[in-house]
Amino acid sequence: MTKIYNFGAGPSMLPGTVLQRAQEELLDWHGAGISVLEMGHRSQVYTAIAEKAEADFRELLDVPADYRILFLQGGATGQFSAVPLNLMGDKAKTAYLLTGVWSEKAAAEALRYGEVHVVATGRAESYTKIPQPEQWLLDSNAAYVHYTANETIGGVEFQQIPDVGALTLVSDMSSNILSRPVDVSRFGLIYAGAQKNIGPAGITVVIVREDLLGRANSITPSVFDYTKQANNASMLNTPPTYNWYMLGLVLEWLKEQGGIAALEQKNIRKSAKLYAAIDRSSLYSNPIGLACRSRMNVPFRIADTELEERFLKDSVREGLINLEGHRSVGDFRASIYNAMPEEGVDVLIEFMREFERRYG
Amino acid sequence: MTKIYNFGAGPSMLPGTVLQRAQEELLDWHGAGISVLEMGHRSQVYTAIAEKAEADFRELLDVPADYRILFLQGGATGQFSAVPLNLMGDKAKTAYLLTGVWSEKAAAEALRYGEVHVVATGRAESYTKIPQPEQWLLDSNAAYVHYTANETIGGVEFQQIPDVGALTLVSDMSSNILSRPVDVSRFGLIYAGAQKNIGPAGITVVIVREDLLGRANSITPSVFDYTKQANNASMLNTPPTYNWYMLGLVLEWLKEQGGIAALEQKNIRKSAKLYAAIDRSSLYSNPIGLACRSRMNVPFRIADTELEERFLKDSVREGLINLEGHRSVGDFRASIYNAMPEEGVDVLIEFMREFERRYG
């Protein structure tokens, strides 16, 4: 059978050894006699699994002691609401840096709860570039400045942490968390849906500096109240137990790979060779500015649009699946998260080259 | 090895054949070449899984065509917020029937969003009885009347659907959904966290009558907005894909068992024999009124409290696990949801009898 490489943007490919271990442990976790799927969230056996995942996450991303790590439900879209509800306090406004579809969505949701100041927007350039810091208008009255570290659909990634001075920085890292080291101490809050780099869909990680707790608006649904969740070790209500366990298996795999610094080197190699293949071709192109091309999501177009259908069909036949772009954009996109092995990218490049030779 | 029977209140026991099938399908779902854990939620292969689960749910509970079935995140506690946010409309108040810990929590959360009228409360009787309908004070100005169909902690279950006249009836059925037939047409909305009778933790089912859509408060987080989720087939954002799949496997198992009417007969037999064993003993007792004893959660006490620790230790040794009561109550509780086989209850009864013979 052809080996399958899954380039889907999320839920996405998981490491083979993680899936094998999940399969082996599914009926009887380490002799407990029951499946993780059946464990009570407050049982000793389960809380050990949950705490191990939290400790591994803290170690991998080097999260300082004055930050809490929460495991919640609702995805990044849930956090689009939870962030303003928890962090606005008595401020009237928030601030958003707009770099694509996801930062726009985050800002639109914040608008339900107060004024939204736009720091800068790349819309005029169709979000192919991140606006230069000189063009940013910071507002010292904003409760926080929000940015999307990696735009999954557009394929635009911040290569540095934005400098927002004394303002509280908040980031959606759903599609690049744990793909590179990050200085967490520069942030007030980081959040990420797990279904790209760190596990299956249905669990969301929130890293929040402790001094930001205690200021949730009274209309905040309790499940989204960071303070209540922090005070209950993310078990104010039943957490998504199996998703948390799977996330833990992915974290153990990341540690076996040598941690985030090693992963970053692999991610640089993978993305660099794919962009190089696109750039030297006359059939494929990527519209994103060189300084902000994403290491995780590589969108590309085919000059001859009549070849699109054939490209998709042929790629699937070769075991290269889910290369279609986001339904809102079209074209193609290769998502090459941590779990995508380097040989998957090599096979894709070889397929693209052969396709161009034949039809280009 | 001793066969394990898991009496935990949730996350709880799953049918063995469901777990076996999940294990078999984990690496490669039906020849798709990838795991369900890796499938994009908008892929054809995954949407077929999701739609099958919805259709099976509709069939099993005989949900009328003018009701939408949503698969959300956040558990019942998330719905404690979502229900008032979506259903209050321009009304100033909601109404709650209080029968234990969970209905109290639901009412407390509704209080964030408006006035809460208490229809009746069983608090004076320590929630051992459901207040008689003659004692209920209905308020025609309430947006809806909420009740908890089965109090998981207290072990109190409504044996009939409450008659609230022309008012909209809302029910939390987290711990008894699909354990008995229900006339859905009597309700405006039913919700249930999956982790007791219908699957793993991390997915919540909402059944809502279509005419109740379109009135969400503007502060409603989008992920909790029933209308937006209904318009997007519960995929406004990435749903908990694997949890949804597991729920689907449980539904298929329920159909194989003969459907809900057959399950109800089994649940009646299981609970009746356990209550009978408790009632005829002089060591064990259950404090709940005969008319409202839960078929799902059977709390019980041991007259000689010095025997409690030994009871727990011995039961675990016999493979009867998670019999401790809820951390807020203490004592013991046997949760005997759909997935608990009748022989599990038989083994428990035999153990309790032998324990009483030896130490009682």
UniProtKB/TrEMBL annotation, chains A, B:
It is found in: Cytoplasm. L-glutamate binds at residue 42. Gene3D superfamilies: Aspartate Aminotransferase, domain 1, Type I PLP-dependent aspartate aminotransferase-like (Major domain). Pathway: Amino-acid biosynthesis; L-serine biosynthesis; L-serine from 3-phospho-D-glycerate: step 2/3; Cofactor biosynthesis; pyridoxine 5'-phosphate biosynthesis; pyridoxine 5'-phosphate from D-erythrose 4-phosphate: step 3/5. It is an enzyme of class 2 (transferase). The modification N6-(pyridoxal phosphate)lysine is found at residue 196. Pyridoxal 5'-phosphate binds at residues 76-77, 102, 152, 172, 195, 237-238. Belongs to the class-V pyridoxal-phosphate-dependent aminotransferase family. SerC subfamily. This is Phosphoserine aminotransferase.
